[in-house]
Amino acid sequence: MGVALILRNGCLSKTKRFFALPSSAHTSCFHCGLPVSGGSACEAEINGKKRSFCCAGCMTVCQVIHESGLDDFYSRLNYQGAEAPPPETPLDLEQYDLPEVQAEFVRALEGGKKQAHLLVEGIHCAACVWLIEHGLNAMDGIEMAEVNLAHQRLNLRWDSSRVALSAIMLRLGRLGYAAAPFNPETAEGSLQRRNRSLLFRMAFAGFGVMNIMWISIALYAGAFSGIDSEVKQFFHWISFCIATPVLIYSGWPFFRAAALGLKQLRLTMDLPIAIGSLSTWSYSSWITFNASGEVYFDTVVTFLFVILIGRYLEGLSKRNASSAALRLMELQPRLATRLLATGEERISVRKLQVGDHVLVRPGEKLPADGLVISGASYIDESMLSGESRPLRKEAGANVVAGSMNVDGSLTVEVCSVGADTALARIVTLVEEAQGSKAKVQQIADRIVPWFVAATIGLAAITFIYWLRNDFDTALLAAVSVLIITCPCALGLATPMCIAVGVGAGAKRGVLVRHGQALEILSGITHVVFDKTGTLTEGRMRVAQVIPANTFDQVALISLAAAVEGQSRHPLATAITAALKGKQLTCVSFLSESGLGVSGMVDSRRVVIGNLRLMQRDGIAVPEQMQQEQSRIERQMGVAVLVAVDGALAGLIHLQDRVRDEAGALIQSLREQGIGITMLTGDSMAAAQALKETLGEMHVVAELLPEDKEAEIRRLQAGGEKVLMIGDGVNDAPALARADVSMAMGSGMDVSMACADIVLVSSDLSRVGFAIKLAQKTLSTIRQNIGISLAYNVILVPAAMAALVTPVFAAIAMPISSLLVIGNAILIRRRIG
Amino acid sequence: MDVIFGLIPAMIIMGLVGVLIFFWAVKNGQYDDMEGPAHRILDDDDMPDKKNDADRLPK
C-alpha cells in the first residue's frame, strides 16, 4: 500500500462517478451503485425492503451495516452510491495481534492502551468517515477512532485488554473497508520533514518580500522626487528590521551548507548564495548605521525567496524512496500453521525452524521454502518465476516462500527460513543493485563549481581593481557582480523544469519518483521488457471458443461457466469471467486434480478438462479438434475440452493476451533506433511465439530473477543506457539495476517501490510519452541554463566596469528568473 | 506624516503575529485534512437514541 494505491483509488472513484449517472436507468446495486448484472448479482431483504446487490460482498456489508443500526450511512451517501464494491478483507488478521508485528506500527500508551495509524482502502466520501467512526466507536474498548478523509487514514486508540486489533480490523472489513497498518514515520520520513521546514523558511521569506517591497517602492519614488532624510532613514531602519530575521531564519540552510562545503573543500551553489546575501546585507547595514547612501535589503530578501522556491520545488520532485526490501519481506506471511504431534498451532513465521512441518491451506501464502510431504495443489509462483500459469505441486516437489497456494491443502517440511529463502535472496539482490548504482551527476551540478569559482574570482578582481579609486565604488561594484551572478536563474533552471515535467507526467498517468529519472530516461539506448504482465496482460483470458458440430458458442460458455464457477483454479476463473448472461446452477460437482472438472447442469452432464480426461471417460475427440489443440499449445495457449452428455461439445482457447498497445510501442522504439530486449522466466517457445506477433527483438528466456539482473548488467557493460520495464517481484533486482526503470501500476507493490517511474494505468503507450516528456524536459533544462548563462555574460562585464548600480542588478535579477520559469512552464505545450 | 513612525512598525508586528499563527496552525495539523471536518460539522447524530427518547416521553 502506498501513494500509488491511494492514487489508483482516487482515479477509480472519479471514473465510476462519471459512469454512475447513465447506468442508473438499470437496476443499480443498493450498496455501491454499480449496475446489477451477471452471475454474481443477488438480493436480500434489508429493513423490510427488497434490495438488489451487484455481488455477495456488497450484500454482506449492507447486512452488517443494517444490523449495527448504521442505516443512516445510505442517506448520507447523497444517492451517489458507494461507487465501488467493498475491497476484500485481508486474510490472516490475527498476525496483527502478535507483539513482534505490532512493534512496527503500534505505539503503546499508559494503562495498556495502544495507538496506531491504519491506511484504509475504500474510503471515498464523508459518509464513509461517518460510518467508520460510528461503527468503531460503538465497539467496546475503542477509545478514539478518527478518520482523515484526505489521506484515507484512520487514527485509532484502543484498550488492548478489552479488544484486540484484529477484531477492530475485522469489524472494518465487515463494514466494507480493508485496513492495513501504516507507520507515518517510515512512510513520510525525514525527506518530508525537511521539505516542511523548507516551506516554513520560504513562507517567512515571502512575508518579508511582501513587506519590504512597498517600503522599497517608497524609497525608489523618493530617490526620484525627493524624500525627507528623516523618513528615508526611518525606512532604512524598517528594511533592516525585516531583512535581518529573514536572512537569519530563511538563509540559515544556505549558510550551514556553505560552511559544510568549505570545510570539505567543495565549491557548492550555497557558497555564492551565502556570500552574495551576506555581503549585500552587510553593506546595506553599514549604510543604515552611517545614514548615507542607498540600501539593498530588498534584494537580499527577494533573492532568498526566489532561491527557496527553487529548493522547495526540487524537494517536492524527490519522492521518498520507500524501502523496496521492506516491501519484499511483506510478501512473506507473518503467521504459519505448525503441525505438532498433538495438533496444530499458529505461530509467527520467525519462530519456524528447519524441519518443522507446516500446513498451508488454499488461499494462503507459503511461509518458508520447503518440500511438499503430502497433499496436492496448484501453486502460483508468478511473482518469483514469471511463469504465468500456476504449477501443480505434489509430494516431493519444492515450494518457495511467498508463493500462493491456490486450491488444495499442503503439508510442507520447512527446508530454509528467513535469510536463506529464495525471497530473501531477491531482497539482497535488490539492495546490492540499489547500493551500487552509480550516482548520476545532474547537469547543473557539473557546472556549479566552475561557476562559483568564476563568480567569486570576478568579484574579488573587481573589488581590488576599483579599490585604487575609492572603497565605496569598489564595494558597490563587487556587490553588483555578486548580485548579478547570483545563481538565481541557474538555481531555478533545473528544479523548475523538472517540477513542470513531473507534474505533466502525473496528469497523464506517469508518476516520476525523482527528477533524475527524467534526465536519464531522455538518453536511453536500450529498452528491456519483462514478458508476463508487462508486454502481456499477465492473466489467462478466453481468447476463442471453438464449438464442435451443432453447439453454439454462448451455450457452450454458459454450460462450462456453470461448472467452472465451483472451482478456484485460475483457468476456471477465466472461463467464468467470460460468461455474459446469468450463471446456471451446477449440482454434483466433482474436481479431479490434474484432469479436470465435471458436474450436472440443467440435467445435462458436463465434463471439462484435458485430453486424458476425455479418453478416460470414453469421449471421442475428432482429429480436427486435436489439431486445433496442438496449434493452440504451440502458441503457448491452453486448450480446454468441453463434453456434454458424453459427446465433445467444443474447445475453449485460453491465452495470456498481448497488450493492445505493445506492438505500436515496439514499432516506434525501433524507429528511434532504441534496442529492444525481452526477458522472461517462461519457456523459449512462449517467448518466440510472442516475438512472432511483436516483431524483431532480442529474446532471453527461462531466466531466474538473478539472471535478469545479470542480463541488464551485461547490457550496461556494453555501454548501453538501459530502461527496464517490469511488473513482478522477479523483476525487482533488474529494475533496481537498470539505469532507469518503469513499473506497471497493476503490478506488485515491490516492483513499484524499486522503479523510478510508475505507469499508473499500466498503459504501455505511456512509455513512449514518458520518453518524449523526458527529452523535452531535458532540452528545456539546457535552454534554461543557456538563458541564465547568457544573462551573466552580458551583465557581468558591465558590473565589473562599475557601470551597473546594485539597484539595476536587483531589477535585472528577477527578470532572468521569470524568463527561466516561463520557459519551464512551456514544457506542457511542447509535449502537446 | 509623523503617524507613519508608529503605524508601520505596528503593521509589521501584526503581520508577524499572523505569520506565527499560520506556522502554529500548520504544525498543529490544522491543514492535514482539508475535506473531512467540512463534512463532519454537518453530521448531527440523527440516529434514534432510545434512552433520550424515553426521557422525553410525556409522563
Low-pLDDT runs of chain A: 1-25
Helix-residue proportion of chain A: 40-55%
Number of helices of chain A: 30
Q: If interface size is counted as residues with C-beta under 8 Å from the partner's C-beta, which chains form the largest one?
A: A-B, 27 and 22 residues
Number of helices of chain B: 3
Number of domains of chain B: 1
Described by the principal axes of the CA atoms, the overall outline of chain A is elongated
Oligomeric state: heterodimer
Helix fraction of chain B? Answer: 55-70%
Biggest sheet of chain A, strands in spatial order?
17-29-28-27-18-25-26
> Can you count the beta strands of chain A?
29
Distance between the termini of chain B: 74 Å
CATH level-3 fold name of the largest domain in chain A: Alpha-Beta Plaits
Overview of this structure, please?
The complex is a heterodimer of chains A (832) and B (59). Chain A is elongated. Chain A has 5 domains: 3-182, Alpha-Beta Plaits (2-Layer Sandwich); 191-318; 333-420, Calcium-transporting ATPase, cytoplasmic transduction domain A; 515-536 and 659-775, HAD superfamily/HAD-like (Rossmann fold, 3-Layer(aba) Sandwich), CATH 3.40.50.1000; 538-657, Calcium-transporting ATPase, cytoplasmic domain N, CATH 3.40.1110.10. In chain A, helix 11 (324-330) packs antiparallel against helix 13 (422-436). Chain A has 832 residues and is α+β, with helices and mostly antiparallel strands. Helices cover 51% and strands 19% of the residues of chain A. Chain A has 30 helices and 29 strands. In chain A, the strands form 6 sheets. A 7-stranded mixed beta sheet of chain A has the order 17-29-28-27-18-25-26, sandwiched between helices. Chain B is an all-alpha fold and 59 residues long. Chain B has one domain (4-56). Chain B contains 3 helices and no strands. Chain B has helices spanning 4-27, 36-40, 50-56. Chain B is elongated. The model of chain B is unreliable at 47-59 (pLDDT under 50). Classes of the chains: A alpha+beta (832), B mainly alpha (59). The interface between A and B is medium-sized, with 27 and 22 residues.
